[in-house]
Structure formats: structure tokens, C-alpha cells
Predict the structure.
Amino acid sequence: MIEIRAATQNDLPAITRLLASREELFLVYPKGRFPFTFQQAQQLYRERFEFTVIRDGDTIAGFANLYDRMQDKYAFIGNVFITPGYRRQGMGRLLLTYMIKAVFEKYDLQEARLSVFADNQPALALYQQFGFSTYSREQRLDPDNQNKTLLHMQLTNPDLDLLPDQSM
């Protein structure tokens, strides 16, 4: 059974194991250093809010959180990640729906924001399906010192009733 719930400190070891490559860690948490350690996960857990996991039974299949909340205006959805074995099964859509609803319903903000690398086509396509649009771009260096374009995207006034149901 699929469950989305608040992460706890006890989930952090499993979360660190989800990001198994330097490339995945860069896409999800560009400031992180590979390997993704328990200490890095703890720091994220302390600095961010609405830290959330999606589980299949006892297995954590992914996580996300919110950060950089601007009072009554917006928050960024961050670290959206679904482990490879659970991709293309609708879990990313469920987790993103949960995070969007948190921004607009729980925190009553006007806008959800997120950042995604332009070459991360599956994530970019998902965000565009939800109505996110690009409002700025910046260049970042990846772990191999190659330039990558980071897109900053926003979503305003979504029809929350049209978002997918969060049950599976």
C-alpha cells in the first residue's frame, strides 16, 4: 500500500541510500556531496520543512520537502526524488500533488516554485503537466565541471480539484 507521510529522523538512513550516484545527488540536491551521508540528510531535515516520504509498505520509494518560504507569497518544492525502481508508476505525480497541496492548502501561499535542470526531461515534463512555467534560468557547474542550465519554475492558482488523487 502506498503512503505519503511526514518523514521522521528514523527515515533518514533509508533516504540517504536512495541517492545512489553522484549524478542523481546533483539533480536532486546540487549542494550535496557524494556520497549522500546521514549528516547531509540531517542538515536538510533541520533546514527544510514539510519533509515528506512516499512509501510502499515498509520501503521508502521517494521524498520531497519545502524550503525558502517567502511569507504569504511562495515556497519552493525541493528534493523531489523517486528511486529508479518506482519510477513511471505514478509515484512522482502523487508526491508532487501532495507537495503542491501543502503549499496552497496547508500554508495558504500564492505560488509554488521549484528548480529543475533543463536536461532532466522526465522531471521537467512532469512539472509542465502540472502547469509549472519557467520564470528564470541560471548556469551551474555539474560534478564534472560541465555547464548545466537550472530552470526556476512557478505555479500560481492551480485548480486543486483537478490534481490527481493521492491514493494508489
Observations:
- The chain has a mean pLDDT of 94.
